From TrEMBL:
<feature type="transmembrane region" description="Helical">
    <location>
        <begin position="161"/>
        <end position="182"/>
    </location>
</feature>
<feature type="transmembrane region" description="Helical">
    <location>
        <begin position="242"/>
        <end position="263"/>
    </location>
</feature>
<keyword id="KW-1133">Transmembrane helix</keyword>
<dbReference type="Pfam" id="PF12730">
    <property type="entry name" value="ABC2_membrane_4"/>
</dbReference>
<feature type="transmembrane region" description="Helical">
    <location>
        <begin position="82"/>
        <end position="103"/>
    </location>
</feature>
<feature type="transmembrane region" description="Helical">
    <location>
        <begin position="189"/>
        <end position="215"/>
    </location>
</feature>
<keyword id="KW-0812">Transmembrane</keyword>
<protein>
    <submittedName>
        <fullName>ABC transporter permease</fullName>
    </submittedName>
</protein>
<keyword id="KW-0472">Membrane</keyword>
<feature type="transmembrane region" description="Helical">
    <location>
        <begin position="124"/>
        <end position="149"/>
    </location>
</feature>
Amino acid sequence: MLNLLRMDLYRMRKGKAAYICLGIILATIALVYFLLFLMLTPTGQAAASRLGMMDFVEMEEAKALFREINLLLVFRQSNMDGGFFALVLTIYFTIFVCADFKNGFIKNIMSVHVNRWKYIGSKILSFAILDIIYLAASYLFTFLVNLLMGGNIPVTGFSSVLFFLAQAWVLTMAMLALVLLVCMLTRSIAAGILAAVLVSSGVIVTLLNALLGLFHVNGWLKYTLYFSLQDAPEVYQSPADLAGFAVGIVFLIVYMVIAGTALSKKDI
């Protein structure tokens, strides 16, 4: 499996897609921070006022908002809680995996590596590494942009940042495993991207939450991947705060097992 892992990491490093996806994530963070700069700083408010983007009342509301936010919240709101980070990552993962089937490279791989579980493990491990790099780079970029803009937004404690990023990593890995399952079953980029959009944006679970909430039977939805990431706590206070880790690990294992079984049962 190490040979497969090295090959996948080499493909990522030499290809442009990994860098483009990271650039998209960082550009989104920069855009959000620019909007915050306009709302929360005197210089930005003056510029926004001249452009007709904000009036006096909106400026006062922005000042109240400034007292309530921190850097981790900005990071979450810019790309994590709404599912944008997961969307970019899962779409890239779909294209990366399905390309093996589209160009027939999977046949060459399986002729050398008969154990198909190694293929599943290689894909998950390679993107586990990429996921860590993306999360770390994204938060570091948020920190640096805040620093360059004068450090107007309070910095969150390192333990809180690490606790949240660890949860985000586990939960996004579970989302990748779900997309991998869809790719193994359909071997279709279109189906994989559709699954990526649905799982990362939370469209289905959000609709279910609204519908089942009418009958007060939506409590179990907090254990879905989307809501576990959206509602992930930033500080550990009790064992209940580890629920996100449990949800992510369980779904990751289940989806990986089913994906491996599907690959083993179907002809290449």
